[in-house]
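User: Last request for today: this protein with WTA, please.
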Amino acid sequence: MSNYHIKHLEEYYQVYRKSIREPESFWEEIAEEHFLWRKKWDKVLDWDFSKPEVKWFEGAKLNITENCIDRHLATRGDKTAIIFEPNNPDDEAEHISYRQLYERVNQFANVLKSKGVKKGDRVCIYVPMIPELAIATLACARIGAIHSVVFAGFSSKALSTRINDCDCKMVITADGSYRGAKTIDLKGIVDEALESCSGVENVLVAKRINSGISMKEGRDFWLQPLLDSASKEGNAEVMDAEDPLFILYTSGSTGKPKGMVHSSAGYMVYTAYTFKNVFQYKENDVYWCTADVGWITGHSYIIYGPLANGATTVMFEGVPSYPDFGRFWEIVEKYKVNQFYTAPTAIRALAKQGTKLVEKYDLSSLKVLGSVGEPINEEAWHWYNDNIGKKKSPIVDTWWQTETGGIMITPIPYVTPTKPTYATLPFIGIQPALMGENGNELKGNQVDGRLCIKFPWPSMARTIWGNHQRYKETYFSAFDNMYFTGDGAFRDEVGYYRITGRVDDVIIVSGHNLGTAPIEDAINEHPAVAESAIVGFPHDIKGSALYGYVTLKDAGESRNHENLSKEINQLIADRIGPIAKLDKIQFTEGLPKTRSGKIMRRILRKIAHNEMDNLGDISTLLNPEVVQSIIDNKL
Ligand code: WTA
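Assistant: Here's the final one, the structure of the complex with WTA:
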């Protein structure tokens, strides 16, 4: 019997040890007992990080959609697979059962085939958070087409770069999308992008906002009539274990995005296994991840991981602030959500609103709270724990990346004791290493280093689309025989990991390494502070000094900025040491953010370096307007 569901700490340690000592037999048992295969593998694992080459379950044949849909029909046909909650709470929600999902995915797959899409073709999916997004994704997987989902908030330039990079022959989109009180003309953006994408033969358009858009004769088709006349039955394409399932772009150190390529079998096994354990999902639980399917979190933990476990997964079209900041909590109450997974940036934005709107709703269904995407600062952690979880729902601070496919370092709720700001322990099968400046592994506890992974895990990305050399250089060249994450981490006295932030955010001040995340944590503890970001700037004596951008909760804060600066520096001195005090503190109206809510430190760094004429493309930011105001008020 495999250990598919871990229930206590001793079991975690025991299973973890087994997964490290005998990784092949461990993963073989998990794969064998919990998934549907058309043919079993010849070999569990083949790997060489120097090439780098990694293959899991080589020789096996499968289709991930048979695992996510077909195999549930006998026992869960009427169970809700996807709950769609629309942007506007007055509009009707949709409950899609596993049987309906089966039919709708087949119809969509048949439409794709009728338009000439074949196994191995790339299809770009640029669709808002409506059911068609999940269905299109699964339909591609069903026929073996490689999906490339592009977050439907990216600009036409960003979209065309991604379409061309992997030569998509089809784009799936919608006439438009709702985001809070706004509507966005998605089809217009696609049309503009396609002016520079000659390889796209067809565009399928879902109707969402009923706007009068233009359709290009012969190229563009309304989706619904095609679906209506397509068969609800269809066979899944038989895929090799290592056939690419999808491409997902992530930004890198250069301007060109990296198309991370994920496999079919390894990705399925690992996302399903992590989902079951990290969220302690039990039959009939309702699980909600607030991410967009356009990011890896949505791929792995809205679609594939939950559906592979026969779960009920919520897809929310809207934003946390519409029609008011109680929207998330209203949804939790409405569906009696048991597991809630969101990002620290959302938690901070909601915390800023106080607790009035939280108290309005019944959150007693919650059992597990998740956090992902960036280090969660201590203040946000406590706010989440006290006000949302009422101190009874463990917070799983899950560290992972687009490149890793699934959650890598995380507590298991009700199993691993949590500790604020710590992602705690490696998940089963994950072998982290902390590396020193000189390429040596830092053994033992209470050490700070570059976070690497020593051994392959099933869901790791296999390459960068069209550029294996860049894959090798970015992830396998910094340290011999290791996957380098680009993050720094601290391992405490009991072996818990705390992610200290991107290594490129480490600033060396007077020869001391200072992580920006702990300094920001200290600043954010100040009751007047909403959010902050630290970057380095050149300093004659120290080499680098620290520049802090600080957003106050109340922009009209009556205390003067000089006093606030002193208090903030005192807090930093108290929490970290005088060495970490900021040389400059600029109070800002907001911080530039990516569409996924990450603070764009690169831009802040350039401003601090006085490189204002070299900011690069800021058009993909969530809030490009704050950049000018930061420049105008620069110290
Ligand atoms: C950061 C998101 C601290 C980290 C799944 C990583 C985190 C990058 C955490 C990947 C966390 C993600 N604590 N930092 N719990 N989760 N990160 O590719 O720097 O969008 O390398 O994947 O986000 O971001 P990505």
